[in-house]
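Sequence only, no structure available. Ideas?
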Amino acid sequence: MRFGLSEEQVLLQDNVNRFLSEQVGLDGARAYADGGSDAGIWQGLAELGVAALLIPEAQGGIGLGSLDAAIVAESLGYHATPAPFLGSAVMAPTALVAAGGQEDLLAELAAGSKRVGIAFGDAVGRRNDAQVNFADGRLNGKVLFAFDADADFYLVADQARNLYLVDSQAAGCERSPLTTVDKTRRTVELAFSNTPATVISEDPEVYTQSLDIGRVMLAADTLGAAQNMLDQAVDYAKQREQFNRPIASFQAVKHMCAEMVASLEPCRSMVWFAGHALTDLPDEARLTACHTKAHLAEVGKFVSKTATEVHGGMGFTDLLGLHYWFKRIGANRQWLGSPEGIRHEAAVLQGLVA
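Reply:
I predicted one. Tokens follow.
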């Protein structure tokens, strides 16, 4: 039995990293944060097949698995990439394929010509920011923190975990930008007033599958972002000198870097297994997704804090740009469920609490 990535997966990761190194990085994050567009980046990723990863070949996709998507998500996090990957390439295709139908939209998603945002609200645990109701083919209500601000359609979940597809240009659909700490991705508040909507699924399991894979992708994104911050901290420690010595030679700094490595390295296996479980171990998928998202949220918080401290006062400046990764990790921690809420959900799944 082989424990690791296949040659094809390594090649996929290398190609995505090469593209992102040339097109994104710190300059790309800054440009997007200053009001730029991610359309060019997304089209480039679509040409690499990223948009089509989870879409069946019959609809113009590649038909790969969740582990392949997690590998890409890790690279996107490493480069602080502004892209609608979570919604258009992962959560929406997962729900649409599971529910059946919408073949034309799936083909457009695979080509990167259309984008579907996710409007689940918080939608987990004991809290739900999705306050919508559906009657006579129309939606009313609102959803907070819907992401992708530039989506052509939105996949909307109500409190009963039914899923609806809404055209972002439909009558009665209003988007209001929301300010979050993460400037590399934009969220909106959606307000619906007798807005035409298509029922995608009334099966809570379809919603759950989409939510689970979304959580694993956020965990993978956090893994990549934390790895970048660790790499930057180590490089800085080798170059920065105090008392005519690189600070990397100081025991305290060595310990900080070693603790980050020790905390982060097991997370890679955890994310890979979670991606594998979603596709090949359905009985374990839900609980594994919960544990992975919650654990990466905590480790990411520790690594981002410690990496910033290694940089000293420079770590808080815009010159180095560490804050783009720091804040991305912080946003990932809360999206689709905080670690506290998800752990409660995992406890319920295991019968430990009511």
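The CA atoms of residues 13 and 71 lie 6 Å apart.
Hope that gets you unstuck.
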